[in-house]
Amino acid sequence: MESVVGVDVSKNFSVASAFLSRNEKAEKALKFEHTNVGFSEFMQLIKRLEEQSQSKPRIVLEPTSHYHLSIMDLLEKQGYEVILINPLLSRRERNASSLRKVKTDELDAEHLAKMYYRHDLKPARYCHDELSQVRYCTRLYESMGTMLTAVKIKTKAVIDLTFPYFNEVFRNSFTNRYIQCLREYPTAKSVINTSRESIVRFIASTTGYREDCKTVQNLSDKLIDAALKCPIEKEVYDSQVHTLLILLKTIEEYQNNLDSLQQYITETLSHRKDYQILKSIAGIGDILAAAILCETGDIANFDSHKKVIAFAGIEPSTYQSGQFTARNNRISKRGSHYLRRALYIAVGCQIRGSQKLPVIRDYYDLKRTQGKPHRVAMVACMNKLTRIIFALLKKGQMYS
After folding, report:
1. Where do the domains of the chain lie?
2. Fold equal for 4-118 and 133-266
3. pLDDT tens digits along 355-381
């Protein structure tokens, strides 16, 4: 008998339903908590099923956020095969199997177990390699980068209230010099009420140049001119200054944490050849190479570049019914949105950045001359870049 256990996973507990065969349920469904006691009860259920069927049962579950990882780790250490089913597939089949609107954790566990008997499902691998571990860092880096951008936008909005023309002083925003100067002079009045000599002395201390240096003198003059442009009658509240100082401190903390993450990611992956291959492509730096590599994992898992494109969710969807065939189809957006975002950023750098990739830039221009909108051309370039990455990783060659 080919036994199977379906497990419906949630945050604090799960429900397991054991089957000896397709229509033969072994025993009542078990609800167990994600604790040592709960996992022990779950393993006892599996052992009982194994004794009845005289074979090791397979365990079927859905990847539910990160909650399923602890169960997978436990089962694979015990030598059991785990099968992961895409939630989209299980939901579609569950809805097609009955017209009744009934959903419980026990029924979901039974449904997962029965799907094993209806389909040819392959076991999943719980990856313990460094790519799986670094993936946490690359995803955190992206999340923190997004939050940092939001904080910077909020900071600029507050600066418009306290010191409207301050951003004209510095070429680049939110550098160390920019933050130090804004912390020292958060309002236009704070500059006007300070002597030029004191301003020059402070600018020199932030730049490391002498006070008579031309750079220091120009920055000091720009700062004073920006303060004089601001309406003196405009009242600045203490709450606005306090908010600005907190935002500046938050930006510094985010930037330090991002630098720490980047250093860890680079040091961990620098010895890998596939990481160096991705970095050899113009427009792909340390973080983008790490994000692409960690999301795709071992390239041997993909038979062709089409599967990588589908995994990134950038393949065009298809809709046809009767005599109607849709012509304007959106991309599927099913798969890793982290990989999709990394490819989008990489293509943006390759067509507009300082490190342009001629083959991608020329392909983008070709699509634009064909009348394609910007985003359609971008997606086409993402597909082309994915094919290039797949070929290089498969052959183990650097880009030249």
Report:
1. 4-118, 133-266, 270-395
2. no
3. 788 999 999 999 999 999 999 999 999
Band (pLDDT 50/70/90 cuts) for residue 125 is low
User: Poorest-confidence range of 15-19, 122-126, 300-304, 388-392?
Assistant: 122-126
> Comparing C-alpha atoms, which of 333, 342, 382 is closest to residue 139?
342
Give residue 242's identity as a one-letter amino acid code.
H
Instruction: Determine contact, residues 147/254, Cβ cutoff 8 Å.
Output: yes
CA pair distance 378, 385, nearest whole angstrom: 10
Q: Containing H/E element for 325?
A: strand 324-325
Please state, in angstroms and rounded to a whole number, the distance separating the CA atoms of residues 31 and 86.
Answer: 22
Q: Which CATH number fits domain 133-266: 1.10.287.4070, 3.40.830.10, 3.30.1130.10, 3.30.1330.30?
A: 1.10.287.4070
Tabulate helix, strand, coil % of the chain (nearest 5): 60, 10, 30
Helix segments in 60-175, DSSP class H: 68-77, 87-97, 105-118, 130-162
Tell me if residue 224 falls in helix, strand or coil.
Answer: helix
pLDDT in tens, 267-308: 999 999 999 999 999 999 999 999 999 999 888 888 899 999
Nearest CA to 10 out of 143, 111, 106 is that of 106
Q: How far is CA 330 from the centre of its chain?
A: 21
**pLDDT higher than 80, residue 129:** no
Specify the CATH number of the domain 4-118: 3.30.420.40
What is the C-alpha to C-alpha distance for residues 300 and 17, in angstroms, rounded to an integer?
Answer: 34
- Report the C-alpha gap between 62 and 15 in whole angstroms: 12
Which of these ranges, 104-113, 173-182, 269-278, 304-313, has the smallest mean pLDDT? 104-113
How many Cα atoms occupy the beta-carbon half-sphere of 37 within 13 Å?
3
Q: Quick one: what percent of the chain has pLDDT higher than 70? A: 98
